[in-house]
Amino acid sequence: MKLSRNILYLFVSVLLFSACSKNENDTYDLRYVHIMDNESSTVNISDKANVVSTYGIYLSGPQVLEPVTVTYKITVGDGLTEGVDYELINPASEVKFLPGIYDMPVRIRWMANPVDPAKNNTVVIELLSVSNPAFNLGLPGKDQLQIRLIITKFH
């Protein structure tokens, strides 16, 4: 009885371990950089807001031992004026991820000021390049989701 139970355990263990590695993709090997706010690529901010908002650029993948630099650009629509509607707290166009760091902020101070709804009242933060060629821009997949964050100031 004890021998048959041990054989059964051995058989089940062999089945489990033999099937585990077939046709699996190791998702932890995917390396990518993306930008988002609360898991979204679009954000709305009221024109009555007086607040500093933080938008995250994220490095995803296994740990790297050298710094990774990500460059980005900020494009502002014709309905917004710097110093009146918003202020870039960190005006640099790149962030550097040191080993062990996986998120870096882009901060914008929003100022209460009415907007013209007929104009383009957006700020777009778009990832342009990454210093380590092992990393892709945007989420994995052909659509490159979260390669840009669109912030709309509304009335």
TrEMBL record:
Signal peptide (UniProt feature, chain positions): 1-18
PROSITE patterns according to UniProt: PROKAR_LIPOPROTEIN
InterPro entries named in the record: CalX-like_sf (IPR038081)
Keyword set, alphabetical order: Signal
The keyword Signal appears for this protein: yes
Protein name, as recorded: Calx-beta domain-containing protein
